[in-house]
Amino acid sequence: MNYSLWQRFKVRLSGRCYLKYEMRPEWSGYLPLYLAKCSKHGYFEGHPQGYSNHLNCPICLEAAALSRKEAVGDLAKVER
Ligand SMILES: [Zn+2]
């Protein structure tokens, strides 16, 4: 997806840029979709999470989940 110069400018300025409201069956209502930028992976779209209203890069989240799994695996080895 290509983002406009204005959108990229807003992300640089405020960390995020509102794109649109999205509706999904599992949600009870509409949620705002934002454009944000990860320092490692570049631009991504996401919904603010939790009380901190933080936008998480999906690739970073996946990597964090993977490394947690690996850490748990190492622990299991040590316990055996
Ligand atoms: Zn990332």
Specify Rg, calculated over alpha carbons.
17 Å
Helix and strand element order:
HEEEH
| Class from helix and strand fractions | alpha+beta
The major beta sheet can be summarized as: 3 strands, antiparallel
Instruction: Categorize the overall geometry.
Output: extended
Strand order of the largest sheet: 1-2-3
Low-pLDDT runs: none
- How many strand units? 3
The CA-CA distance between the termini, in Å, is 48 Å
Describe the structure.
The structure is a single chain. With 80 residues, this protein is α+β, with helices and mostly antiparallel strands. 40% of the residues lie in helices and 28% in strands. The protein has a 3-stranded antiparallel beta sheet. Strand 2 and strand 3 (42-46) form a beta hairpin. The longest helix has 22 residues, at 58-79. The structure holds zinc ion. The site of zinc ion has 6 residues, from helix 2.
Topology summary:
Layout: H1 5-14, E1 16-23, E2 30-38, E3 42-46, H2 58-79
This protein binds zinc ion.
How would you describe this structure in keywords?
single chain; about 80 residues; alpha+beta; 3-stranded antiparallel sheet; 2 helices; about 40% helix; about 30% strand; binds zinc ion
